[in-house]
C-alpha cells in the first residue's frame, strides 16, 4: 500500500495550553508557529508516523511581559532550546473516532514519553477539493518533569504558577498529492 503524507493546515489548527495562576484561575496560551506531518499507509491512521515541532519564540499568552518570561531561562530557555518537539512512537485505534497517541515530548533538552487520548474526526473533502483529517488532543503534563521549575511563593500560601499544564490541541491536516 502506498504511503500518504499529510501536512498541517495552520489556519485551522491551534496548539493551546492552560496553567493555573495564583492557584485559582487559568491563564491560556498557544504557540503561533509550528510544523507537523503525518505519514500513513493509504488513508489508515493506525500506526501513523506523527512528528510535531513548535517554535518557543512564538509562545503567546496575550501578555508581552509574561511571554518574554516564558521564553527566558526561567522557563523554556528559547535562546538555547528554540523548539519543542514531539515524535509519536505509537498511534493506536481504540474504537471508531478514538485513538491513543504515545510519543517522546522534548522540551528544553529533556525528552519524556507521554500518552494522550485523541479524537479522530475522520476524513472529508473540503469545498475546494482538498482531502482533510482532524485530530483533537487533550491531556495534562507536569511542567517540572521538563525542568520548567520557576515559581514564586504567595504570602497567602501556595504558588504563583501551577505545575500542571493542560493541553488543548486542535489539528487539521491536508492530504498531499
UniProtKB/TrEMBL annotation:
Coiled coil segments of this chain: none
Residue ranges constituting the Lipid/polyisoprenoid-binding YceI-like domain according to the UniProt record: 5-174
Name assigned to this protein: YceI family protein
InterPro entries: Lipid/polyisoprenoid-bd_YceI, TTHA0802/YceI-like_sf
Amino acid at each position: 500500500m502506498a504511503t500518504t503524507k499529510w501536512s498541517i493546515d495552520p489556519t485551522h489548527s491551534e496548539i493551546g495550553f492552560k496553567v493555573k495562576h495564583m492557584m485559582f484561575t487559568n491563564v491560556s496560551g498557544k504557540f503561533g508557529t509550528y510544523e507537523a506531518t503525518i505519514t500513513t499507509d493509504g488513508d489508515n491512521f493506525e500506526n501513523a508516523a506523527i512528528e510535531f515541532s513548535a517554535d518557543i519564540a512564538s509562545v503567546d499568552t496575550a501578555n508581552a511581559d509574561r511571554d518574554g518570561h516564558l521564553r527566558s531561562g526561567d522557563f523554556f530557555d528559547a535562546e538555547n532550546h528554540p523548539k519543542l518537539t514531539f515524535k509519536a512512537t505509537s498511534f493506536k485505534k481504540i474504537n471508531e473516532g478514538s485513538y491513543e497517541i504515545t510519543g517522546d515530548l522534548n522540551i528544553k533538552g529533556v525528552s519524556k514519553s507521554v500518552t494522550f487520548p485523541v479524537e479522530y474526526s475522520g476524513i472529508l473533502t473540503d469545498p475546494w477539493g482538498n482531502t482533510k483529517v482532524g485530530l483533537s488532543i487533550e491531556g495534562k503534563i507536569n511542567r517540572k518533569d521538563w525542568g520548567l521549575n520557576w515559581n514564586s511563593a504567595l504570602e497567602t500560601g501556595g504558588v504563583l504558577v501551577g505545575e500542571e499544564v493542560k493541553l488543548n490541541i486542535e489539528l487539521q491536516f491536508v492530504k498531499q498529492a
